[in-house]
Amino acid sequence: MRALGSDASWLSASWGGPHGLAASGHAWAALGRSGRIQAVACTYFRGTGYEDVAVYTVPHRRRHHLALACVTALCADITARGHTPSWNCSLHNRPSRLLAWHAGFRLVREYAHYAVGSPAGSPRLSA
Questions:
Q1: How far apart (Å, rounded) are the C-alpha atoms in residues 80 and 55?
Q2: Edge-to-edge strands, sheet with 37-46
Q3: Pairing outcome for strands 37-46 and 50-57
Q4: pTM of the model as a whole
Q5: Residue 3: its pLDDT value, please?
Q6: Beta-sheet pairing, 84-86 with 37-46
Q7: 66 class by beta-carbon count within 10 Å (0-12 exposed, 13-18 middle, 19+ buried)
Q8: Model pLDDT for residues 30-56, shown as the tens digit of each residue
Q9: DSSP for residue 94
Q10: Mind listing the pLDDT tens digit of every residue in the chain (127 residues)?
């Protein structure tokens, strides 16, 4: 997980870091020929009935269906545990929405995201 760099540090944060995520049994990764992680999908938040899915793919391997393979395997594990996979992302995160759709997720509702303190992003998003 550390090999993914600081861009992916958020992914393992809810598990106490890369070692916690690796030991959790709640993640799937796609490895390259060199043995380096190219994509990973994991349970980000786990509740009594749902497990929220998070995904990261290294930039040069995006659109190679690695994340889809990881998400598909993770969702099978979540279902086998008797839980329901869930997916949350920004309305403006088209790549995440497309990945969710291709993995079989369907939109239930859209929501507004509020933050306190420093702005979470620029006031205007561009496509």
A1: 20
A2: 27-31, 37-46, 50-57, 84-86
A3: antiparallel
A4: 0.81
A5: 59
A6: unpaired
A7: buried
A8: 998 988 889 999 999 899 999 999 999
A9: H
A10: 555 667 778 888 888 888 888 899 999 999 989 888 899 999 998 999 999 999 999 888 888 899 999 999 999 999 999 999 999 988 888 999 999 999 999 988 888 777 787 655 555 544 4
What does 21-84 look like in DSSP terms, one character per residue?
A: HHHHT-EEEEE-TTS-EEEEEEEEEE-SSEEEEEEEE-GGGTTSSHHHHHHHHHHHHHHHTT-E
Residue pointed to by tokens 């994991």: 42
* Total residue count of the chain as it appears in this document: 127
61: burial class by Cβ within 10 Å (0-12, 13-18, 19+)? middle
